[in-house]
Structure to design on (117 residues):
């Protein structure tokens, strides 16, 4: 299961908070959202339905928002979301996230570490 607690985006560290209810994703409580990012607070909030593909897609969507904003890339919101879906699908289907161990201090991907052969 890929469920990091931290992500570094262009050298800026973000805490990732997972919410079991969509009403809890908006930190101001005004909207029903799937994901939310606040650059100034360094926080990404992700709706977690328990489905890894959906959670990963939402997380990547928010990461891409930050990357596009910081690099001045103009992308239609629907295109950004399709890009997130494609990346989530590619990374998960190829197992590229399954054995990832973060280089961030105190961070793991939630997997039990197994002994090296
Ligand atoms: Zn968005």
């Amino acid at each position: 299961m890929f469920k990091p607690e931290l992500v570094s985006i262009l050298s800026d560290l973000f805490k990732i908070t997972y919410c079991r209810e969509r009403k809890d994703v908006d930190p101001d409580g005004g909207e029903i959202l799937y994901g939310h990012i606040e650059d100034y607070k360094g926080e990404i909030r992700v709706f977690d339905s328990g489905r890894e593909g959906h959670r990963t897609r939402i997380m990547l969507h928010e990461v891409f928002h930050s990357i596009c904003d910081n690099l001045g890339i103009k992308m239609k919101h629907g295109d950004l979301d399709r890009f997130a879906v494609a990346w989530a699908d590619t990374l998960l289907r190829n197992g590229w996230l399954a054995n990832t161990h973060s280089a961030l201090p105190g961070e793991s991907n939630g997997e039990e570490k197994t002994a090296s052969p």
Remarks:
- Residues 61, 65, 77 surround zinc ion (CB under 6 Å).
- The chain has one domain: 6-93.
- The chain is about 30% helix and 20% strand.
- Strands lie at 6-9, 12-19, 35-38, 43-47.
